[in-house]
Specification:
The chain is of the alpha/beta class and 334 residues long. The protein has 2 domains: 72 residues, no CATH class; 246 residues, Aldolase class I (TIM Barrel, Alpha-Beta Barrel). The chain starts with a helix and ends with a helix. The structure holds pyridoxal-5'-phosphate (PLP) and iron/sulfur cluster (SF4).
């Protein structure tokens, strides 16, 4: 069997039904009643290997909280919206967001290996799943200020190697593009996706490639994940990590320190710790800026300079992510 059919088969083993997952996790009927059935607009999608990392008989688990819909998603405080980061207003073409100078983000696909309940792009009106990027490629070609394309989505590694290959070939033909960035969470759910063919595609690409993973909790990292990522690192591709600060998942010193240590031990540099984007249904995940600053300052006091991520917030209309520093909070208060 080819490696790509292996990871497609693994993908079919995802938990998509709450009752099956609740049985697997040995949840009580009281716990089951706190799960949310009717999110057909953004249904549960949880890879088996992540489900196997969840502690049984409790809802108070950092992996469960990230992926399993709970009734809190029905709470919609006033300042939570469908598009908190202003993606729609930076849409240049159906699948191209151009918000910041020098880089543009290509929505390569709407599909992901897992559905993260706090995802700010869960309401994005993705077009058909067609992998035709002709309009987007034309826009990139005609704007020479764009030096870097970020492949995002969804998750760009949801694309087949064939589709990725044709996209990469088109991007390689644009002379002013210098860098290609993958924003992906796929290897955490299905590390088998980093297969021989993908490694071949990456290793022959003529532009600088950078990988930015999305990992929130140290338990998401294990030897299989590290092995897969190491294949990318051995190509000379820098691998970074961004996380979202989430209540009940990683909003304590011990968890964040352990996550950063695991990452830097594997040569993966912590890049951003994002404050939650206020998307509908995610209010129960919110952690304050002040608490975020406390955590970052703890990390800075316990890690090498490169080991602590920047605390970042996406504010619609700003020319880049807003970096939040302790001293800027002080000056706000005076
Ligand atoms: C976050 C983001 C980027 C990348 O920003 P960096 O600070 O370079 O990581 C680019 N485009 C869009 C639309 C984004 O949301
Ligand atoms: S993997 Fe990324 S894009 Fe996909 S649901 Fe999670 S946060 Fe959203």
């Amino acid at each position: 069997m080819s490696t790509s059919s292996i990871w497609h088969q693994i993908q079919r083993q995802n938990f998509t039904r709450l009752d099956a997952l609740a049985t697997f996790l040995e949840l009580s009927s009281e716990q089951r009643s706190l799960l949310l059935e009717d999110r057909s607009d953004f249904p549960m999608n949880l890879p088996l290997r992540l489900a196997q990392k969840i502690i049984k008989q409790t809802l108070d688990d950092p992996i469960l909280r990230q992926f399993v819909p709970q009734i809190h998603e029905r709470e919609f405080p006033a300042d939570f919206t469908a598009d908190p980061v202003g993606d729609l207003s930076s849409r240049r073409c159906p699948k191209l967001l151009h918000k910041y100078h020098g880089r543009a983000l290509l929505l390569a696909t709407s599909a992901c290996a897992m559905h993260c309940r706090y995802c700010f792009r869960q309401n994005f009106p993705y077009e058909s799943s067609s992998s035709d990027f002709s309009e987007e490629l034309h826009a990139i070609k005609s704007d020479t200020t764009i030096q870097e394309i970020i492949l995002s989505g969804g998750d760009p590694l949801s694309l087949s190697n064939n589709s990725l290959q044709s996209l990469l070939t088109s991007l390689a033909g644009i002379p002013h593009l210098r860098r290609l960035r993958f924003h992906t969470r796929f290897p955490i759910g299905i590390p088998e996706r980093i297969d021989d063919e993908l490694i071949r595609l990456l290793s022959t690409h003529p532009q600088q490639i950078i990988f930015v993973l999305h990992i929130n909790h140290p338990r998401e990292i294990d030897p299989d994940v590290l092995h897969a990522l190491n294949r990318i690192q051995r190509l000379g591709i820098p691998v970074l990590c961004q996380s979202v600060l989430l209540k009940g998942v990683n909003d304590d010193e011990e968890t964040m320190l352990s996550l950063c240590e695991k990452l830097i031990n594997a040569g993966i540099l912590p890049y951003y710790l994002h404050l939650l984007d206020r998307v509908n249904g995610s209010a129960h995940f919110e952690v304050s800026k002040e608490r975020g600053c406390q955590l970052i300052s703890y990390l800075q006091n316990h890690l090498s300079g490169y080991g602590a991520p920047k605390l970042a917030q996406e504010i619609a209309g700003e020319p880049g992510k807003t970096i939040i520093y302790l001293h800027s909070l002080d000056s706000l208060q005076t």
